[in-house]
Amino acid sequence: MSRPLRVELAGALYHVKSRGDRREALYDDDADREAFLDVLAEVVERYNWVCHGYCLMTNHYHLLIETVDGNLSKGMRQLNGIYAQASNRRHSRVGHLFQGGFKGILVDKDAYLLELSRYVVLNPVRAGIVSGPEDWRWSSYRATMGLSAPFFVDER
Description:
The protein contains five helices and four strands.
C-alpha cells in the first residue's frame, strides 16, 4: 500500500517528528546532537524555513517548522539524509538510522503554536530526564528564554 500524498503548503506550520530505526538512539553523544543541529540550521537556511522550536530526545526529535515555500519533504529528505550519512560515517556504521519516513502534522498556527511549543520543550521533563525545560540543552527553550546564545529559532 502506498503512502498518502503529503499536504505541503506555502506558509504552513508543521509539527515534525522522526524516530530512530527500531526505536534506537539517534544520537550517541553530544557531538552527534551538535552535528544534527548544524545540519538543521543549514536546512532551515537553504529551504527558507522558519523554525519555531525543536527538541532532541534520545531516539526521536520534534520540530515546529513553518514552510515559507511549501517544501517540507525536500527539506526533511535533506535533514535526515545528511545527518544519517554523517552519523554512519562517524560511527563506522551502515544502513538505516531513521525508522521509515518522518511524520509531519499540519497544524493551525494561530490556535496551536503556543501549545505545541510547550509540548515540544516539555518532552524531556515528561520523560523524567530533567526537572525543568531549562535543564535540557537540546531544545529551543533555553535560547527562546534568553538563557543561552540564540540559535536559529525564529522568535516571531
